[in-house]
Design goal:
With 109 residues, the chain is mostly helical. Helix content is 72%, strand content 0%. Helix 1 crosses helix 2 and helix 1 runs antiparallel to helix 3.
Length: 109
Amino acid sequence: MIPFMILFVVSLMAITDFLYFKNSMVTGSIRNQSYMTGSIINKGYITAVAVQFRTFMFADFGDEIEEYDSLEMLVFMVFTLMLLIVLMNLLIAIIGDSHDSIYANLQQL
């Protein structure tokens, strides 16, 4: 289960870095500009991570998704699909481990 968490954290940081630094390159400054042009003003990178976590884990899009351009929307869709595949793989692995342990206990009887 730890490899799945590592993959999730790395993926979350990658999407956050992409969106945060893309916006900072467009606006010309990291410190004095907003993360997304609308709702998150002068909050910084930690807030950007929290917003992306909330968006991808709880589907709480708020106003952020309305301000994505086409490249940001493409990255968002790819990340969402990748996250779905990783979490489904995690679920299958957990169910497989449970099945193996139950079957091993059944063989001992």
